[in-house]
Protein: TPM domain-containing protein
Amino acid sequence: MLRSLALVLGLVWLSAPVLANPYPAPADGAVTDIADLLTPDAERRLNALLAGLRRDTGVEAAVVTLPTRKDYPPVVPLEGFATRLFNGWGIGDPERNDGILLLVLPEDRETRIELGAGYDQGYDVLAQDIVSRWLVPAFREGDYSNGIETGMEAVADRIARRHAARLAPEPLPDRPGTNGNRIGSWLFGIGFAAIAGFALFGRKIGDLAAGLKRCPACGQRTLNRSRSTIVHAGPGTPGTARILTECRNCDHREEREERIGASGRQGGGGGFSGGRSSGGGASGRW
Structure:
């Protein structure tokens, strides 16, 4: 029982907004190569690739290399680390949540493609195929620059552009040894999506609970609360929502404004828009 409670609390902590993001700020372009894995030419090509992807489809994608996640306490597993970094930077459009992060940690021998919350689980399978086919084999040979570049080209073509065109994920032939990885990726995504759902609907539950209170004018339990967004929150900029409470039995009406928290992205550069991930994607180790 205690182990289950600790697991739930840990997942809730990982999915909560990052109040003090300990991770580095994004670079001015889409590529932040702190581990210095890319050749100058490869970095220029990647920045051009991702700038073109954003221009053509609106999809924001980032490549991040760090020597190790252990330099950024508290130390959390790879999947949670990638989700917190993704949400801390706010990668992707906040309405579509279609951002993509490719993270490479050479000292940890780990990599992850983190997908925004707008991608369904079929794209987790595609991400796992790209990790297994392009990223891990190249990284195992120490060919980080070529692996990152070819892997990101596959991500752009097979995930980002296909999703932007509203096409279903392409089917993959079954290959021996992949079922376990796929099931693990799906279960991880489902768990984070469920927690994110509780957070998303928390305010809605509060609005429904308002109906259980008595109207201060007529004393009946006939209150109804609704909310509408006046100003959408953006990276580093809070928004505003209008909260309206009305009585269905009389003319009582209350209206107030509520602050919507800014997205968690910190630091300058990058130009990301405030998108979020609920833990979808795929990981690889070598």
